Every structure is written in structure tokens, then in C-alpha cells.
Amino acid sequence: MQDTGYKIDTAAFEAIYRRHWKKLFNICYNRLADEHIAEEIVQDIFQSLWERRKNFVVEGPIEHYLVRAAKLEIMDFYRTGTRRQHIRNHLFIGYSELDESTEQTIYSRDLQEHISQLVDRLPEACRTVYQFSRLHGLNNKEIAQKLSISIKTVEYHLGRALQFLRINLQQHKS
């Protein structure tokens, strides 16, 4: 084998790329059966070649170097494939969660609107106690003091309001 140093300028790089990318892609695709991953690996090989173009030295034909680089990248992919698959799965879950979050937001708004309509249908005393409890975050003792009623009366109105909402929300689900 002779020691051949290649000085790679833009024209030489483009010629190497045009001449060898398809073969490298086929090698990667045949072993991985995934077009996107094969493209990614080939791009990584050529990016590395471009980044090292000023000091690039190879023994023998550059085709042999590129084929060996492809095989090493494939082995590296299998070695780290679990990590990449985990990243991909995480990304897809993220997209799925985004889709679900939109759906959840719409459902939540619809449910909130329905609850508001139900609360408006409550008798005034029940509605007032419910709003102080759920919307303003007051406890039963604070509500009783604010409305000048007993804690038992607050519990009664709150229980009645929650029962009404529970029954009507079950019907809304169906």
C-alpha cells in the first residue's frame, strides 16, 4: 500500500461525495434497513471528512477509507443504538403528549364551561358556599364566618352542591 495524502478542497470534496455517497448509503441502508439513519450516518462521514480536509491522510484508495468508516459508524450505531432509540421514543412521546395536551385543553375548557353552567343552576346559598370554597379557597370555618352561618350549614350546602355536580357530570360523560 502506498501512502497517499489527499488535499481536499471544495471541488475535490464534491467529486468524492458525488462518486461515493450512493455506495455508502447502500452499505448503511442494507445493514440498518432505515433510510433516515443511513442518510444520517453518510452525512456524518462526509461532515467528518470535510472538517478534517486540511490534514487528511489515507493509505490506499479513498473508497476503502469511506467504506471502512461506514462500517465503523454502523457498529457504533448498534453499540449506541439503544440510546438513540430511547431518544427517538422520547421525542415521539413528546409529540404525542403535545397532541394529547391540545385535546386535553379543549376537553378541560369544555368541562369547565359545563361546570360553570351547572354552578349557575345551583340555589343561591349552595352556589355562594361552593364559590367561596372552590373558587376562593376558603375553608368551611371561614365561609361560616363570612356568611354568618354555622359550619354545619356550610357543610350541608357544600355537600348538596357537590352531589348536584357529581350527578350532572356523570350524565355529561355519557
Question: Please, could you describe this protein's structure?
Answer:
- With 174 residues, the protein is mainly α.
- The chain starts with a strand and ends with a helix.
- Strands 1-2 form a two-stranded antiparallel ribbon.
- The longest helix is centred in the middle third of the chain and has 60 residues.
- It is built from 6 helices and 2 strands; from the N terminus they run βααβαααα.
- The chain is rod-shaped, with a radius of gyration of 34 Å.
- It has 2 domains: 92 residues, Orthogonal Bundle (Rna Polymerase Sigma Factor, Chain: A), CATH 1.10.1740.10; 77 residues, Winged helix-like DNA-binding domain superfamily/Winged helix DNA-binding domain (Arc Repressor Mutant, subunit A), CATH 1.10.10.10.
- The mean pLDDT is 82.
